[in-house]
Amino acid sequence: MCLREIPRAHQRQRVGNELERDRIETGKVWLVGAGPGDQELLTVKGRRLLEEGDCFVYDRLVGGGILGLIPAGRDRIDVGKKNGRHTVCQEEINEILIREAKKGKKVIRLKGGDPFLFGRGGEEAEALAKQHIPFEVVPGISSAIAVPAYGGIPVTHRDFASGLHIVTAHPQDGKAGAIPYEALVKAGGTLVFLMGVSAIEMLMEGLCLGGMDKTMPAVILEQGTLAGQRKISATVGTLAAKAREEQIKPPAVIVVGQVCALESRLQWYEHLPLAGKRILVTRPRDRGFKLQRQLQALGAEVLSVPTVETVPVEDASEAMAIRAELERLQEYDVLAFTSPYGVERFFDLLWEAGKDARAVSHMKFAAIGQGTADALAKRGLRADYMPKQYDGVSLGRLLAAKLGEGTRILLARSSLGTAEILRELDRNKGITYRDLPVYRTRYAKEDPGLLKSLMEEGTIDCAVFTSSSTVEGFLRMFGPFPFETVTAVCIGQKTQEAAQRAGMRTAVSKNATTEDLVDLISRLRFTGAL
Question: What global pTM score does this model have?
Fold first, then answer.
């Protein structure tokens, strides 16, 4: 047997082909139920997949808050269907999923509610299986359960209903007779109709013809679990007329049964302080979770659209400057921080340089506010200096007043740090400082399409800004826009001044803390004038 050496060019080609095949074979699709709209009703697994996915294919019913959780720079494909108009047909959606998966991507197919409950997820799974594309199904909370719950309606109750029937109001053949009204009425229990706004007259008439009493309680809930939630309580005989009178629009859920009589006693969502309010948070994606959670706990629908991003220093000369300062930390007496991220980034850089907290054990620490002090506390360090007013001017003024002659300060902060703190430090001629950028703040490049349409419709009640740079990023993101229509809730005077220059209506928190911001928002009347 003769062994012949394979030419290297052919070896490289074969290896390349194998790598390409392996890359393609790693592609996979997750059919993820995004729930009824409220981002806090997204499952834990669904939230994890939002962080991990490469490509997101989403429906119209996926909440804006959930879309806001998708990391910047990931591929997004809108295949939303609206009543009477299909943006993308189902066959094309199937092809999109197959195409993107064959590129080796982790494809996240976001579907409102649960993917296998009237979501045509089964058809998409069949198409993927036929093409041997691996997939998983991630169940979601269905609007058939969640929306009535947010309206104070338990779909089952020992005293009223031991059964539940969930019906789509859009049968595949489009025939009214496809819904077995008489059988549903005889079965008893609670009826939940999805996608039924355009067919509400047909549905109520069909139930009456099927033998249901016209006085049976019935409710329609529009935009359930979201800030725009509306509820119309009536009977089977009057619901259709009331819904038309109030101009109820999709998405909406119709509930019929004795359990609907409980809604006035069991309603809870409407009693939350910020129920019905939609609030925009502009903080960097990894900085705004605490604020977002506090607002959501009060009932607000929160849209997170970061207008700035915090990233490590990339410029070679700046990186060299950081390394040089880390080698002579013994020359400094005070280490000052103006943000929690500055604390985190500084100590990460210290670790990367082969050092740890012992390298700054001889120093005292200054923090611009409680959040920054908390970041130091996580490192086992206490803030020796913190102003009563949480801003750069106050920190600089405090240090200039407290520090003695010969004191050297290392100021670790963003490359976009303002000059106010430096001007205050300059008032004390006996101290010296080094202004060291340890991270960069850059303006985000989010697509403002969805957000812009919501703001033009007037459905955003206020925008929260936590720095003047978030205001600037907001202005850059939108371009020309009637900013006088925007209500800006600002964390400090400088942030407020930036918003006012753009023409926004403003309110400012007493202190630069998330607690003060939330307290301010909860006290606003949202009348359009602050």
Answer: 0.82
